[in-house]
């Protein structure tokens, strides 16, 4: 049966139709000048589709085959490499030459021939830690790939020490200790209320494991850490056996559910977790948290309901009061981007800046050439000062739509925010993808360089930066 995406409601013929190829571009075309103090690899994940998924899979945006793009910077030049993650799932479907896996996180909808296979699409995020490049998707173990060739080695369970069946795509690297705080939810299998959290040392060895129960089976897509605590928000996207048996993708919004935030001391055990309660919030990603004088503050993009515009808000948890089980909420900024990033060298510590790609509805943005993606179209790169609310920003071309940004420290920089911010943009005029690079301290001056890819990448998921000094040496081709 030939591959045919026509007529699939999730695949209009515009910018985000499947790309389905792998590529190498040696010495990419660059407009402007790439500073020589950018040395390392910028990675971004996308969901791409080898085969058309079922037509009722409205969560296809998170259910495509994982595809990684790596932009390697050295001496003012950039080399590009793009590869599929060769998951068990992709290889089984390639062999059958058809789609075998069903809708998003619902094994009831899979072809019986793949019931025993790892379901990971390895499509969400990539981390370099403990000498391994790990590609993550929250319903399964990480997939280990080569940081330079992007060759897939296989799933990774930390030498059998990571017992949970899943690892979230948003573990946190403590910049002080080098530890990775990783966790899995539905950690004993689909629909289980078990959460497992692991401390993995800088060498990549599991050194601590804690299991606890979630208050309900809601999504725990991301966490935040401080130097003393791990913060686990459980938010109002829920699921059930009935829902899965009916053949639906896993999640549905339920605004009647409270937001429940579990706070676990990093040196504690399950008995030490405290739960705080708040109204339903539509949120998935958390910017950063800090603790000071018994108060934990956490900044995050959120909205009240599923259709409200996102804002950057601050939640405050008072750890001094033993009886208090609610948290305070205030608005930091009406900046509406929902994928803010920071200078990750300051994660868990006092910090000031968020880097966000947002939509300014008063300025032009081409929402026509990416059908179905109008809500995701962004036209402004911003630096938000979370202490004062001050925003510095610049607009991109109306034909460009920015994806998740990533902060890149200048080589040998010490101060927070001293570096660059990068983001891939869909360019609807050329129907190709651009990588825009801004000076993070002078965002308002516009992009200082643009890497011009000669092809189109689909809209991406998450991004990361690996300094060259942290990676093994490159063998030149
Ligand atoms: Fe995410």
Description of the structure:
By secondary structure, the chain is an all-beta fold. The protein has a domain at 156-470: Neuraminidase (6 Propeller), CATH 2.120.10. Helices cover 3% and strands 38% of the residues. It is built from two helices and 32 strands. It has helices at 88-96, 241-245; strands at 23-25, 29-32, 40-48, 65-74, 77-84, 125-129, 132-136, 143-145, 152-155, 172-173, 180-185, 194-200, 206-213, 218-219, 224-225, 229-238, 252-253, 259-265, 274-278, 288-292, 295-302, 311-318, 328-333, 353-358, 380-385, 391-395, 400-402, 406-409, 419-427, 432-439, 449-452, 460-467. The strands form seven sheets. Strands 2, 27, 28, 29, 30 and 31 form a six-stranded antiparallel beta sheet that branches. Strand 4 (65-74) and strand 5 form a beta hairpin. The longest helix is centred in the first third of the chain and has 9 residues, at 88-96. It starts with 22 loop residues before the first strand and ends in a 10-residue tail after the last strand. The protein binds fe (ii) ion. Fe (ii) ion binds at residues 124, 169-170, 221, 284-285, 462.
- Radius of gyration from CA coordinates: 21 Å
Low-confidence stretches: none
Q: Bin the helical content.
A: under 10%
Main beta-sheet strand count, sense and barrel state = 6 strands, antiparallel
Pairing-aware structural class of the strands and helices? mainly beta
- Distinct small molecules bound, one entry per kind: fe (ii) ion
**Quaternary structure state of the chains depicted:** single chain
CATH class category of the domain at 156-470: Mainly Beta
Query: Roughly what fraction of the amino acids lie in strands?
Result: 35-45%
Q: Please report the distance between the alpha carbons of the first and last residues.
A: 38 Å
Tally of helical runs: 2
CATH architecture annotation name of the domain at 156-470: 6 Propeller
